[in-house]
Amino acid sequence: MPEPAPPIIEIRDLHKSYGALEVLKGVDIRARKGEVVSLIGSSGSGKSTLLRCCNLLEDSQQGDILFDGEPVRWKGTGAARHPADRGQVLRIRTNLAMVFQQFNLWSHMTVLENVMEAPLTVLRQPRAEVEARARMLLDKVGILDKADAWPAMLSGGQQQRAAIARALCMEPRALLFDEPTSALDPELQQEVVKVIKDLAAEHRTMLLVTHDMRLAADVSDHIVFLHLGRIEEEGPPDRVFGAPRTDRLRQFLNSAAA
Ligand SMILES: Nc1ncnc2c1ncn2[C@@H]1O[C@H](COP(=O)(O)OP(=O)(O)O)[C@@H](O)[C@H]1O
Ligand SMILES: [Mg+2]
Questions:
Q1: Coil, helix or strand for 91?
Q2: Alpha-carbon span 109 to 213, nearest angstrom
Q3: Mind listing the pLDDT tens digit for each residue in 133-160?
Q4: Ligand 2 centre and the CA of 207: distance in Å?
Q5: Mind listing the pLDDT tens digit for each residue in 154-208?
Q6: CB-ligand 1 contact for 49 (6 Å cutoff)
């Protein structure tokens, strides 16, 4: 039997502090190719910090981050630890596209220009090829008719779908979502949920931070419940949602359902 492929994303015993505040206290997470891993937990539990450490937008002080089996190389230790290899950081970051709660589209560019920007400037791919892919992706998320619109002319749900098309246009190895639906009115959340479900059905590798327990239950292979910077409980969605083992998770699920 061949060795199984290494996980696309692997985080081992990760510790992260902001000054004296320890936000991640030894977290282990793994996403294999095609897996959707959802992170749930109360506000302030460290979910966003974990995603930001994962794509090296934030430094961490201890533990390992591996991408496709390749460990991030560090220089220094503790508070003085930083990635050692700029090229490696760029390579990892371009392969881990992030979708934020607040969309973060460039307001001075059209929707199409937003989607094309990084493949043109970071990957230096030919314009015609990038434009064809960008239009295909806008069509896929259902807003091809908005290609030449400014972001401000779009609804929140349309803006978030544009942001997802922008992430996909980098052809990343994995997608990181940070509460992609929580800035949207309930009726607009569903159009974004549908896109995320489509991506899960295509077996995209994803780390998904979400407050939407139904979405997490529907799309995830694995659920991680973070509490005060530690994994309090984790497992397959049926088990985690159907038979939570810890009081903290039960309390969290009760308050999330309220
Ligand atoms: N840039 C920062 N500087 C200082 N503290 C921060 C910073 N970002 C987040 N924190 C703190 O880290 C903790 C975890 O935050 P965060 O990762 O945003 O949690 P979540 O996404 O689960 O709501 C919180 O106590 C928050 O106040
Ligand atoms: Mg957050």
A1: helix
A2: 34
A3: 999 999 999 999 999 999 999 999 999 9
A4: 13
A5: 999 999 999 999 999 999 999 999 999 999 999 999 999 999 999 999 999 999 9
A6: yes
Tokens 């931070």 correspond to what residue?
A: 209
182 C-beta closer than 6 A to ligand 1:
no
d(CA 82, CA 85): 9
Ligand 2 centroid to residue 48 C-alpha, Å: 4
- 3-class SS of residue 195: helix
Does residue 43 line the site of ligand 1, with CB under 6 A? yes
CA–centroid distance, residue 38 to ligand 1 (Å) = 18
Q: Say if residue 22 is exposed, middle or buried (CB neighbours under 10 Å; 0-12, 13-18, 19+).
A: middle
Domains by residue range for the chain, with CATH: 9-47+56-105+176-257 (3.40.50.300)
Q: 63-91: per-residue pLDDT in tens?
A: 999 999 999 999 999 999 999 999 999 99
- Per the structure block, which two tokens stand in for 222? 């694995």
Please give the model's pTM, rounded to 2 decimal places. 0.95
